[in-house]
Design a protein that fits this description.
Blueprint lengths: L9 E4 L1 E5 L2 E5 L12 E6 L5 E6 L4 E7 L2 E6 L4 E6 L4 E5 L4 E5 L6 E6 L8 E2 L2 H12 L3
Antiparallel strand pairs: 1-9, 2-3, 4-11, 5-10, 5-12, 6-9, 6-11, 7-8, 7-10
Length: 141
C-alpha cells in the first residue's frame, strides 16, 4: 500500500459565484475534489479538541463553514498545521493522516466530506496504534 504523505494534503479554492444577492459556493465530487462523497458530517458548539485519530481508507475534505479552528496533520514523519477560517477554502486530507482539530472559536462549524461510509474498523484511534500500522503496512510493505 502506498502511503500518502502530508505533501499530498492541500488547501484549494471552492468555486464561488457572487452577485448582488450574495455568494453561492459549489463543490462537485470528482470535479472539484479528487474523490467521491459518500458521507458528510459537521461539528458545531465544540468545547474541546476533536480528532485524535487517522483513517486507514478514508480521504476527507475539511471546510470551516463558520468561525475558525486549527487542524494538524501528521503523516508519521512530518506535521503540518492549517488555520481554517474561510468557507471558500477546503483542505484535502488523504487517508492515513493523523488528524487533530483544536482552538475552535465559539461560532465554529466544521464540515467534513468523506469518500467512505462510517466503519469503526477504518479508525486508528491513538498514536501508538497509528505508528504501528504505518510500520507494518504503509512504508514499503
Amino acid at each position: 500500500m502506498k502511503h500518502k504523505t502530508n505533501s499530498e494534503s492541500y488547501i484549494f479554492d471552492i468555486r464561488t459565484i457572487k452577485d448582488h444577492r450574495g455568494s453561492l459556493s459549489v463543490l462537485e465530487e470528482t470535479m472539484d475534489i479528487p474523490m467521491e462523497i459518500k458521507r458528510m458530517f459537521f461539528m458545531h458548539h465544540v468545547v474541546s479538541d476533536r480528532g485524535g485519530h487517522a483513517h486507514i481508507e478514508t480521504d476527507q475534505v475539511v471546510i470551516a463553514m463558520s468561525g475558525e479552528f486549527k487542524i494538524s496533520l501528521f503523516d508519521g514523519k512530518e506535521k503540518k498545521e492549517y488555520m481554517m477560517n474561510d468557507c471558500t477554502k477546503g483542505l484535502y486530507v488523504p487517508k492515513l493522516s493523523f488528524v487533530d482539530l483544536y482552538d475552535f472559536s465559539a461560532d465554529a462549524v466544521c464540515l467534513i466530506l468523506a469518500n467512505t461510509h462510517y466503519d469503526e474498523k477504518d479508525y486508528l484511534r491513538n498514536m501508538p496504534d497509528y505508528m504501528k500500522y504505518l510500520e507494518t503496512h504503509a512504508y514499503g510493505n
